[in-house]
Input
Amino acid sequence: MSAKDIATILHPAIAAFYVFPLIGIASYYAWQTRQRRLEAKANGKSKIAPGVGPEHLKIGKWLSSSVVGLTLLGMAQPIVKKLIFDSQNWAANSTRFFIIALFFVATIASLVMLFKARTVLWRGVFATLCGMGLLIIGFQKFQAGDGNYYDLVFRRDFEWYVSHFYFGMGAAMLMIFSLAIVPDIYQDREHRWRKVHAILNSVALLLFISQGFTGARDLLEIPLSWQQPYIEQLYINNCQQQDCQVIPAPAPDAPVPDAPVP
Output
């Protein structure tokens, strides 16, 4: 594989060997923490170690920051590819690139400050700035050589309900919100914030599962660098000069049909 291909799979590779294991660990500690709380409430004590709560908090913070970082990495790859590696786009988009780079820096800085913020006001401010940074970067466009504007990050708007981008953005927003309400969870005696946290992170878990499916699907649709010119040529020959029809492959034991007469 070329350096371009390695850069393409860097985002899913980190998700596979680092982020998804963290999801499993955080989910395990979340379940153990809840079971310990229920047992202690019913019997006055629990056999589950008291350290599961602090461990869940620590792993949860790692997971939240990793999801935001992975989201930024996933958006950085097509941005760098289209604005820097594709030299014909640089002249018309150089200023745009530096502005987007500043949004990357501001988003990362907001995430760092969110970890340090203590008051409700500043946690809300930095969580909002971090979420806005992700959205602004994700919806950027660039001017191509033909003068038209195209999306920098592929969003699959025609099938938004199975979009890797939208599912990932939703999961990242929930992770940012989880970070912002951590102090409130421990200060709320009526456990309302704890219930909100449990419900929203259950939704986030479903989004993470969907990311596994949509991410694998998207990898199948992205050709290697040496394959891309041939696939583009096939598309030009078959889907631009005439109506493009996808014909299902025949069953393995079905007879091969005769070639159509021109």
About this structure: The beta strands are 141-143, 149-151. The mean pLDDT is 89.
